[in-house]
Specification:
Elongation Factor Tu (Ef-tu), domain 3, about 35% strand, single chain, Rossmann fold, six-stranded parallel beta sheet, alpha/beta, 12 strands, 2 domains, binds flavin-adenine dinucleotide
Length: about 230
């Protein structure tokens, strides 16, 4: 029998390529954006991820950039005492990483149903990439702890059909922005989303994807669910 071989050329998603850290910008006390050089052969669809590798540790990150951008951008939560994200938070500009990609299938599929994007924390990243590449007319729920964590809200207020910040711990010292829902995104969906057929795109915390999927089963027959679990 003929033996099949797969060569790991640069356009193969599993090929390991080297990239360089160009910039880091802190969005909040614990979340930052990084910009990396882009291997010329790396083409991706908004919503896809890359795998970063350093020594024996590897982690996946959703691409924040648009497919035509010159560089690659990521939005990363600094996990206290984490194994990899603190390293990304501290790496020197010019540091080199190994990367593979693109990976994953969490991409936008236009349909006759209304898109509802639901993100917790950095789960917003794929929706930024989709928006930057021209996706419009969606509802977006962004569940975060406090108002300061609503990074990218300017983009979504301008482009989305409806943008709903979902604040878990609103505080008097940190006034809630317009249209804020106080509570989990699942609570907004259960109590405020009108009955209709939707395409739900869920990204971020496993518990949120679980809770929203149950609600869709109970209240939104005829809707579809697409998920990307980060943590
Ligand atoms: C497909 C995919 C895409 C991902 N995309 C992103 C992304 O775009 N941005 C990003 O920050 N992370 C993303 N992650 C998570 C990322 O791969 C790492 O798990 C994360 O950076 C933590 O790694 P660590 O080694 O620092 O922490 P670890 O030592 O592995 O500690 C894990 C702990 O961190 C928590 N945690 C992991 N990720 C997050 C997060 N984003 N926000 C809050 N708590 C978290 C987990 O609940 C767990 O308690 C993605 C994961 C997957 C599977």
């Amino acid at each position: 029998m003929e033996k099949k071989t797969v060569s790991l050329t640069p356009d193969h998603p599993d090929a390991i390529q080297t990239v360089e850290l160009l910039q880091r910008r802190w969005l909040t006390e614990n979340t930052f954006e990084i910009e990396l050089t882009r291997p010329p052969a790396l083409q991706f669809i908004p919503g896809q991820t890359i795998r970063l590798i350093h020594e024996s540790i590897e982690r996946y990150y959703s691409l924040l950039s648009a497919p035509n951008d010159q560089s690659l951008a990521l939005c990363v939560y600094h996990v206290p005492r984490g194994n990899f994200s603190p390293f990304l938070a501290d790496a020197q500009i010019g540091a080199r990483f190994s990367l593979s990609g693109p990976h994953g299938y969490f991409i936008f599929n236009p349909s006759s149903r209304q898109p509802v994007f639901v993100a917790t924390g950095t789960g917003i990243a794929p929706f930024v990439s989709m928006t930057r590449s021209g996706v419009t007319d969606f509802t977006l729920l962004h569940e975060v702890e406090i108002a300061e964590d609503l990074y990218y809200q300017d983009i979504f207020r301008e482009i989305s059909k409806k943008y709903v910040p979902c604040l878990l711990y609103p505080s008097a010292a940190d006034p809630s922005p317009p249209d804020t829902f106080h509570g989990k995104a699942a609570g907004f969906i259960e109590n405020n989303l009108p009955p209709a057929n939707y395409d739900f795109y869920l990204c971020g915390e496993r518990q949120m994807t679980h809770d929203v999927t149950l609600l869709v089963d109970q209240h939104f027959a005829g809707s579809y669910v697409f998920k990307e679990v980060f943590y």
